Amino acid sequence: EFTAIIEAAPEGGFWAICPKVPGANGQDETIEEAKANLRQAIELILEDRKADILRGLPDDVIQDKVMIG
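RESULT FIELD:
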C-alpha cells in the first residue's frame, strides 16, 4: 500500500505522485485514471529495481518475504 498525492493539473485533468517511490507518477483526465497510471508506474519501477538487484547474484541466493506492519 502506497500513498498517492493527487493534484489538479494546470492543463486539465490530474497528476499523481508517490513519495515513497521516486520517479513514479501518473496523469490522466480523472482521479481514478491518474491513480491507475500511478499504480502501473510503481509496478514497473519496482520490477525494474528488483531485476537490477538480482542481476549477477548467484543462483542459490535465498529470496523470502518480510511482512511489515
